[in-house]
Amino acid sequence: MEHPGTFVTTPTEGPRVIELTQGQEMVLATEDGRPLTRIRLGIGWDKNPTAGAIGTGAPDIDLDATAVQFASGQLFDIAFYNNLKTRDGSVEHLGDNLTGRGDGDDEALVVDLPRVHGPVDTIVLLVSSYQGHTLEWINNAYCRLVDEDEVEVARYTLTGGVPHTGLALAAITRDGDRWKLRAIGEGIAVKVPTESIEALRPFL
């Protein structure tokens, strides 16, 4: 299994940077221990101008951010470009970007943690390539978590090509009255978010 990057957590004060590697966890809480209530998952990417056959140029790459809710291992709901909000209202997709052009986050999902339906215990976050390009076709790809105060609390950066059409980024899991983030960072053979369910089960 490839490990193409790391999550980096940066405190708001002080120079220390903590890298959260695959399989490790972080509690979704403020520095003084209060549980985070609303987080945003932002992803960004640029096309790799050298990808593809010589002389053809690289096409625009359409990556899609998706959040999949599970309850005791069973699918509960999914938020993605064709279903912008889960039926419990806790996860909202903020709109589809077809090219990755422009600065800042190209796509984003907002998760209102207190609104997550009681039986839901895991939310898996992923990106996938609708057109079937592998993630070797992109540059400068990242995923970041931002809290309700717009403070970035974690970032995942792709540091190498991933020969898959999808990437399981992280799982948010319920832990009593709090939630934890577990870094995954593994490629999966997924193009369409609704076909991701079985590919995500190993990460529950």
TrEMBL record:
Residues 18-190 form the TerD domain. InterPro entries: Stress/Tellurium_Resist, TerD. It comes from the Bacteria. CDD domains: TerD_like (cd06974). This is TerD family protein. It comes from Nocardioides luti.
